[in-house]
Amino acid sequence: MTMREIRVGPFAYEILWDAGEAAKLAVEMKESALIAGVKLRDMQIVIDPSFPDDRTRNSVLHEVLHAALNAAGLNLDAEPNGITEEDLVVTLTPWLLMVIRDNPHLVKYLQRGGD
Ligand SMILES: [Zn+2]
User: Fold this and answer.
1) 114 pLDDT exceeds 60?
2) How many whole angstroms separate alpha carbon 37 and alpha carbon 26?
3) How much is the pLDDT for 11?
4) 27 alpha carbon to ligand 1 midpoint, in Å?
5) pTM
6) Which pLDDT does position 112 carry in this prediction?
7) Which residues contact 7 (CB under 8 A, 6 or more apart)?
8) Which has the closest alpha carbon to 42: 68, 18, 67?
């Protein structure tokens, strides 16, 4: 696990492989446990490396999509809205494309649990 940074469009997120930080973030988010979480203000994605690789890979991509929605300015929790599936797909597509293009190390990690 040497992945240290993931770019989401213009933003570079530091990757913290740290069970203690993940546990702290879980408390902040009022969750019982957290495999991974994104700290938007701190520009960090925190991952608990003690979980199985298949779980962490899924959670890393999950947090990347949260970061992409934030970068795109789409905050679905903030207010009632009429966001459709098409809106969500149209919004996420260029961000996912940028993430894949800009992070070959992330793509390798997602494919095979490498670095
Ligand atoms: Zn989430």
Assistant:
1) no
2) 8
3) 95
4) 15
5) 0.86
6) 78
7) 13, 98, 99, 102, 103
8) 67
Provide DSSP, 65-107: HHHHHHHTT--TTTS-----HHHHHHHHHHHHHHHHHH-HHHH
Residue 8: closest CA among 48, 40, 47, 30: 40
pLDDT, tens digit, 9 for 90 and up, residues 32-54: 989 999 999 999 999 999 999 98
* Residue 114 alpha carbon to ligand 1 centre in Å: 23
Residue 39 CA, ligand 1 centroid: distance in Å: 12
From ligand 1's centre to the CA of 59, what distance in Å? 8
Q: Ligand 1 centroid vs 112 CA: distance in angstroms?
A: 22
Residue 35 Cα to ligand 1 middle (Å) = 11
